[in-house]
Specification:
147 residues, alpha/beta, Rossmann fold, 5 helices, NAD(P)-bd_dom_sf
Length: 147
């Protein structure tokens, strides 16, 4: 598999915009693509995505362009497998997982966050906060509707 720093990468879903900020920042500028709803496409461009795909209007797996690596944050590994090049890889963080996609789970603790500190402090990884959030727990339904 090619190095993540030299691959053609697509990130699926907009629930990962915070994760996407780091994903887009560390991948090669020739191969950054991501999906989002219409209202968040400009944010993806600002984060560095070369190809912003509106999943409400396009099926990413039907694009003629295929990807070396697909990072699935919304549990659509079956669709993601159709978007990956032969020999490429699909990593998902949300079940269900369609083989040969790989489920990747990470539990965050103080040690993991300490490893991220240099990247955050140097600006290589930036936290992206939506101006409409955070919402209090009493508005959890509104938060999900916003996604």
């Amino acid at each position: 598999m090619p190095s993540l720093l030299s691959t053609h990468v697509i990130t699926l879903g907009e629930a990962e915009v915070a994760v996407n900020g780091s994903d887009v920042a560390v991948t090669d500028p020739r191969g950054k693509a991501a999906t989002a709803s219409t209202g968040k496409l400009e944010l993806l461009r600002k984060l560095g995505a070369n190809l912003s795909i509106d999943y409400t209007k396009e099926n990413f797996e039907e694009l003629p362009e295929k990807f070396d690596f697909v990072y699935d944050t919304v549990g659509q590994s079956e669709r993601a497998l159709k978007a990956v090049k032969e020999g490429g890889q699909v990593i998902t963080i949300t079940p269900p997982v369609t083989p040969p996609a790989t489920l990747f789970l990470l539990t965050s603790d103080g040690e993991v966050l300490e490893k991220l500190r240099p990247y955050l402090e140097s600006g290589k990884v930036k936290a992206v906060l939506d101006p409409k959030n955070p919402l209090p727990f009493s508005k959890v339904i509104k938060a999900f509707a916003y996604l």
